[in-house]
Amino acid sequence: MRWILLSAATAASLFGQLSTGPVSIGHIHLMVAEPEEQKKLWVGLLGAEVTHVGSLELLKLPGVFMIAGNSSDAAE
């Protein structure tokens, strides 16, 4: 009985994922010392697109949005 409930709960959570391709994540927060350097890396080397949602700047890749924040801001 437990396995049936566990399987049902797992299957239900899978429907909450994005369906843009074979692999989808949603979004990732990167907390780094130099966000601008990370942005250059992801855009220049890996082909991410810079996108804005309100005042929030996102790096867009297929199936995932990334947010690069300053790690020193997170420590405070």
Q: Please trace the helix and strand order, writing H or E for each element.
A: HEHEEEH
Q: Give the C-alpha Rg.
A: 17 Å
Kindly, what is the distance between the CA atoms of the first and last residues, rounded to a whole number of angstroms?
46 Å
Briefly note the structural class of the backbone: alpha+beta
Main sheet record: 4 strands, mixed
Summed up, the helix count is 3
On the 0 to 100 scale, the average pLDDT is 77
Low-confidence stretches: none
Please state how the strands of the largest beta sheet are arranged side by side.
Answer: 1-4-3-2
Q: Please give the number of β-strands.
A: 4
Strand content: 25-35%
Portion of residues within helices = 25-40%
Brief account:
This protein is α+β, with helices and mostly antiparallel strands and 76 residues long. It has helices spanning 2-14, 35-45, 71-75; strands spanning 26-32, 49-53, 56-61, 64-70.
How would you describe this structure to a colleague?
Helices cover 38% and strands 33% of the residues. The model has no long low-confidence stretch (mean pLDDT 77). A four-stranded mixed β-sheet has the order 1-4-3-2. The protein is built from three helices and four strands, in the order αβαβββα. The longest helix is centred in the N-terminal third of the chain and has 13 residues. With 76 residues, it is of the alpha+beta class.
